[in-house]
Structures are given as structure tokens and as C-alpha cells.
């Protein structure tokens, strides 16, 4: 090989090496930049259907929580049922919104009533479906009883759910008193808390629960004959950080 050819080859190799190194540096810079950007998540909205029933839209995914009250049109990708009391699920409505591939998560005693594949999560357990994660947490009475020693919702009977959608977590408390475990909940964006008394927390207890959980937003549910505005006043008079939303049935709330 002539000296001239060796020089040309050496220059060519240096050029190729330079291009490769530049590509590596640019690529590393791009991934470092992406790593520090805020996570991009699909848009999320929630619609109160009445009682403890909610419709959540996460991008093109449809999620129902305790499907009982309200109208049901959109087919479900995911259905969550907190417990087997009949005011928290309706088999006719579940059949209407179920499709091939719908995932149903419910306690075992609900599974036998609604049929089909049902996954059960106990407190502390969770399952992921793409960018959706569902975790179960405790929900029970310790101060509300049918008869002495017989609570309306004994521990182990039902659950609450943590629904994580991208970087936002929605907490559906189920039917429960203000229990100590609520103090362990962290980074809740939206809490759905029962406020009706008799079978669940009443307004004053739900206020204490909201202050303990410290969500960005909270929606009262299962309010029965109580006045949700009392809950709103109780929370917002004691915390400037927690915003109470009082939607009308069928009203959509967009989660930013």
C-alpha cells in the first residue's frame, strides 16, 4: 500500500471514529435529557356516577370503580369492586360493560356472584396492567356494628384500592371507618372518601381522614343523607393544600 493510500485510509478511519464518538455523545445527552423531563402520562378524568361509583378515563382506557349507581355505556378495560354489599356492584351493569379482555378485580365472595374471570387482591397486594397499577389496602369498621362485636364491615371483608395511573394515584377508600392504616398512605393525588355515617365514616371523621392522607384533591362519596358541603368546609377550614371537589352525578373532573 502506497504512503498516499495509507494517509487517506488513516484520515477516513479518524473521520469514522469521530462520527461514532459524536453519535455516542449525542445519544447519551439525549437520554440524560429525557431522564430529567417530567413523566408524560395519558390524560386522566374521573366522573362520579353516584353513591360510591366512579368512571375513570385514562387515555383510551375505561375503568369503573364499584359499578352500581348511574348510567353505564362505555365498555370497561378494568372493573374494581371493593366488597360484596349490593350497593357496590350490579351484575346487570357489569355484564353490560364487560367485553373480551376486561379485567375484574374483586373480593372472592364477589367473584362467585358476577362469574367469569375475577382477580382478587388482598391488602398489601398489587397488580400491574401496562401503565396501570392496582393495589389493595385495608377497609373496615371498628366502631360501627350491626350488633355488639359484629361490625358492618369486619376486617378482611372488603378492601380499598390505590389506582396508580402514570404518576397520579387515586385512592378509593371503600366502606370504612377512619382507620390507622390511612395514615400510611403517601402521595395520593385524589382521595374518594365515604362520609355518610351509619356504615362508614361520617363528615367529621372523613375530615380527619382527609387531613391525615393529605391528597391534593378529595371527593366525598357514599354520603347518604348527609351534607357534603359540611365536609368541604371542615377540610378547607383546616388545610389550604387539600381541595374538596363536589361533583354532581355524571359530572367529569379532569386530573391535570
Summarize the model shown.
By secondary structure, the chain is α/β, with parallel strands linked by helices. The chain is built from five helices and 15 strands.
Itemize the secondary structure elements and their pairings.
Blueprint: H1 3-36, E1 44-50, E2 53-58, E3 61-65, E4 78-80, H2 91-97, E5 103-105, H3 108-114, E6 126-129, E7 132-139, E8 145-147, E9 150-151, E10 158-165, E11 168-172, E12 190-194, H4 203-213, E13 217-221, H5 228-236, E14 243-244, E15 252-255
Helix pairs in contact: 4-5
Give the mean pLDDT: 89
User: How many helical stretches?
Assistant: 5
Low-confidence stretches: 23-39
Amount of helix? 25-40%
Measured by DSSP, the beta-strand proportion falls in 25-35%
Broad CATH class of the largest domain: Alpha Beta
- The rough form would be described as globular
Largest beta-sheet details = 7 strands, mixed
Q: Would you report the number of β strands?
A: 15
**How many structural domains?**
2
- Strands side by side in the biggest sheet: 6-7-10-11-12-13-14
Helix/strand class: alpha/beta
Q: Specify Rg, calculated over alpha carbons.
A: 25 Å
Q: Predict the CATH topology of the largest domain.
A: Metallo-beta-lactamase, Chain A
> What are the secondary-structure elements, in order, as H or E?
HEEEEHEHEEEEEEEHEHEE
Q: Assign the CATH superfamily of the largest domain.
A: Ribonuclease Z/Hydroxyacylglutathione hydrolase-like
